[in-house]
């Protein structure tokens, strides 16, 4: 689909980004999607979704033993989230940089959390922390027919 990228296909990663219920309730959906859209990665999945408890627990299973786990599951299931899959070379680390530190008070200005949030328990957005988790989380949150492979009109202006 992107003939000029075939040489670097092994380097192409995918990451799962999610606008959490506070981001949706606060009307930040467009603002947050814009930041990823303008950066220049490829969007391959996008939906508004009310997350069931079991899915939230599976998504955050590595944090099961943490004291904040029950509150986290309540937060993530408290209203609809926006699920996104983004693809590109270096997209996992880059998305984490755009998102900023877990604690929004420590997140740099210019990042999503640094600009738009104040508390760890209301930090508006999620991003996968490794390429492996990117794949795992996209498979968890999206069904096969919900993902779209396409060539952005801007492709030759974004990727050489
Ligand atoms: N979280 C929390 N309290 C904490 C640490 C984390 O409520 O002390 C929540 C917060 O919403 C965070 C999520 O749990 O985004 C996942 O934690 P992780 O350490 O994976 O942070 P992230 O990868 O989201 O930056
Ligand atoms: Mg994490």
TrEMBL record:
Active-site positions on this chain: 126
Entire-sequence positions represented here: 85 to 244 of 244
Catalytic function, reaction form: a ribonucleoside 5'-diphosphate + ATP = a ribonucleoside 5'-triphosphate + ADP; a 2'-deoxyribonucleoside 5'-diphosphate + ATP = a 2'-deoxyribonucleoside 5'-triphosphate + ADP
Protein's name according to its UniProt entry: Nucleoside diphosphate kinase
Required cofactor names: Mg(2+)
Similarity annotation: Belongs to the NDK family.
EC number assigned by the record: 2.7.4.6
GO molecular function, one term: ATP binding
Species, as recorded: Rhodamnia argentea
Signal peptide feature range: none
Domain Nucleoside diphosphate kinase-like: 12-149
UniProt keywords, alphabetically: ATP-binding, Kinase, Nucleotide-binding, Transferase
Sequence intervals crossing the membrane: none
One record GO biological process: response to hydrogen peroxide
Binding-site list for ATP: 20, 68, 96, 102, 113, 123
Lineage: Eukaryota, Viridiplantae, Streptophyta, Embryophyta, Tracheophyta
